[in-house]
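Subgroup meeting minutes
Present: P.N., E.W., G.H.
Scribe: E.W.

1. P.N. recapped why we're keeping a running log of single-chain structure predictions: easier to compare across weeks, and new members can see raw inputs and outputs side by side.
2. G.H. added today's entry (76 aa).
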Amino acid sequence: MPKISPELLSVLRCPVTGSPLVQEGEELVATNAGEAGAAPRYAIQDGIPLLLPPELLAAATRAGSDQHDPAGTAAP
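Output recorded in log:
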């Protein structure tokens, strides 16, 4: 399980609620609840927190890598 450093956690904030984040297992969890009444949760992949709201994370996951390359230099 990748452990996020205390220094990094001290500056990270939930993009939905603006509250500090705490690590629970392989996720970061906001310390305040969002509009849905539950605290937003964010995955950690390869030691990197994915701080996108769930609806944007799903869209980013569905998008092809060529859509993220404005110069059009994506490898075939």
